[in-house]
């Protein structure tokens, strides 16, 4: 092998190693963030939407809403923000379904804010950032699934929100170790793609 060939081989090997280390460190950070539970006094609790069926939250969404309800009852923030748009043909947005669920659970209307925008996390966070700016709010506790927390925090920060996360510990996303492993792999790809492109890239159903 010539000197040039050896140099190219070493550079290629170094790049592959750097890429593997980046993926591994990102996956480890997602795992670590998922295990945290930050509950600082904030302007609002932001619940990221998920599927709803004719106004009834899915099991994943309901788990997030129940956790947000617990945070609100503990006095973490005076307002719960539900966020998320709707798919073609839906009558209700995710934000509306989440707001109605919490109202039925006893949260008064003045403590709820529905932001019915966004087909993915990035669009939703940008809409929430605009709503925060209009009200002079700055701090939020973000409620989502554990493996989604790091990307959600990052997108919230990029939208001008000082965000920490309190992930739900219930629901399908945390049922088995195999499920958790798959979610970490998907979120690692989604987080790295977001950092590279600045946009929300769908890498698997439900990941965006």
Automatic annotation (TrEMBL):
It comes from the Bacteria. Residues 43-189 form the DUF218 domain. It holds the Pfam family DUF218. GO terms for cellular component: plasma membrane. PANTHER family: DUF218 DOMAIN-CONTAINING PROTEIN, INNER MEMBRANE PROTEIN, PROBABLE PERMEASE. This is Uncharacterized SAM-binding protein YcdF, DUF218 family. It comes from Geodermatophilus amargosae.
């Amino acid at each position: 092998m010539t000197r040039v060939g050896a140099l190219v081989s070493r550079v290629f090997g170094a790049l592959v190693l750097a890429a593997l280390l980046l993926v591994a460190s990102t996956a480890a950070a997602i795992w670590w963030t998922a295990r945290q539970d930050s509950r600082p006094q904030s302007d609002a609790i932001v619940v990221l939407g998920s599927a709803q069926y004719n106004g009834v939250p899915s099991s994943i969404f309901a788990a997030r809403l129940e956790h947000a309800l617990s945070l609100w009852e503990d006095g973490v923030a005076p307002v719960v923000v539900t966020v998320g748009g709707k798919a073609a043909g839906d009558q209700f947005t995710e934000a509306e379904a989440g707001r109605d669920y919490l109202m039925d659970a006893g949260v008064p209307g003045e403590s709820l804010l529905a932001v019915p925008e966004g087909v993915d996390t990035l669009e939703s966070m940008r809409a929430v950032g605009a709503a925060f700016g209009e009200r002079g709010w700055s701090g939020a506790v973000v409620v989502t699934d554990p493996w989604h927390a790091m990307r959600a925090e990052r997108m919230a920060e990029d939208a001008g929100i000082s965000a920490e996360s309190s992930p739900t510990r219930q629901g399908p996303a945390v049922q088995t170790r195999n499920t958790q492993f798959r979610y970490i792999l998907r979120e690692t790809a989604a987080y790295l793609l977001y950092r590279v492109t600045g946009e929300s890239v769908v890498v698997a159903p439900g990941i965006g």
